[in-house]
Design goal:
Length: 335
């Protein structure tokens, strides 16, 4: 199946570039509300499913035992920009569990946020594992390991008892047999599993509503959503799409980006889950597509619309500030 065009880039009055992709919008019963493109082809959701991977942090009692704040719980779902607040929150999580940055096995990279990266370089410093955009998720993993009495060493390995638990959470939320699908290694070194968009979207509908989940898992999902809504800065960072949109929508939407053009959302009040994948992996197109879907499925107040709607069709300028074209969602996304 050929995926349709989801986002267009214009210049000089014509379409200069097309971004093809697939979208699944599913309700908590598993009913397909919208399907565009090949939604049954397994794709790697990457960081978009961090919310599912964070469920054991709540279910195990680790978040309560270590008295994690909303910001720290939100960090468990984050692909953060490596700003000082993010680094401090990850370090705090580890400290509360009696660990430090040397226990992190995610690797180090320069902060994703340009301002944070420039500041670090200007100080003559090099990045730490705490600057890794996944350090919050890994710190949460280590909190669970301590809570459950696992040796933290080697926790990123597929057969480590902690990683088996994280994998089981992902498989249960998406109702997909991860033992019979393609497995890769994510950027932060944990396993990543290929899952169809339709299953991912259904998982987010259940994450949004708790419907079809055991009571403790439903409570854990609600706790994660509440923390992220309270502290959206800690899920992404200054000026980032996830943060800006959730600052406007708060508990109305849990949205999360993933590498290679993946975006997912849980919309509690309408009971829907959304999963999309841009075929060429373009993050810019994934954001525009997600904005269009949020505008389509959520009734927005004037203030909310002022944040979301402009991101569905906006001008692109050159270095002199001259408008040279537009990025816009395709008609297929706009109802």
């Amino acid at each position: 199946m050929s995926d349709p065009v989801l986002v267009e880039i214009t210049r000089g009055g014509i379409v200069e570039s097309f971004h093809h992709g697939a979208v699944a919008v599913v309700d908590a019963d598993g009913k397909l509300v919208l399907g565009l493109g090949d939604i049954n082809r397994p794709i790697f959701p990457r960081s978009a499913v961090k919310g599912f991977q964070a469920l054991p942090l709540i279910e195990s009692g680790a978040a309560e035992r270590f008295q994690l704040t909303n910001a720290e719980i939100a960090m468990s779902c984050a692909s953060h920009s490596g700003e000082p607040e993010h680094v401090g929150a990850a370090a705090s999580m580890l400290g509360k569990a009696g660990l430090d940055l040397h226990c992190l096995e995610c690797g180090a990279h320069w902060p994703m946020g340009e301002k944070a990266a420039r500041a670090l370089a200007a100080e003559g410093r090099t990045p730490l594992t705490l600057h890794n955009n996944c350090s919050g998720k890994h710190s949460a993993f280590l909190c669970v390991a301590v809570q459950e009495g696992h040796d933290p060493k080697g926790y990123i390995a597929p057969n480590h008892p902690l990683m088996r638990e994280i994998t089981a959470s992902l498989g249960a939320m998406t109702d997909y047999n991860l033992a019979k699908t393609a497995v890769g290694v994510d950027g932060c070194s944990i396993p990543t599993f290929a899952i169809p968009l339709r299953n991912i979207a259904h998982g987010f509908a259940r994450f949004a509503t708790g419907q079809g989940l055991p009571p403790e898992r439903a409570k854990a999902a609600a706790r994660l959503r509440k923390a992220v809504a309270a502290e959206p800065f800690f899920v992404a960072g200054s000026g980032r799409f996830d943060t800006v949109v959730m600052e406007a929508l708060r508990e109305r939407a849990f949205i999360k980006t993933g590498a290679e053009g993946v975006y997912c959302a849980a919309l509690p009040e309408v009971g829907l889950g959304i999963a999309l994948k841009i075929e060429d992996g373009a993050g810019r197109a994934a954001e525009t597509a997600m904005a269009a879907l949020l505008a389509r499925y959520l009734p927005l107040s004037e203030a909310e619309a002022a944040v979301v709607t402009p991101r569905t069709d906006f001008e692109m300028k050159n270095w002199n500030g001259i408008e040279v074209g537009r990025m816009r969602s395709a008609d297929a996304l706009r109802a």
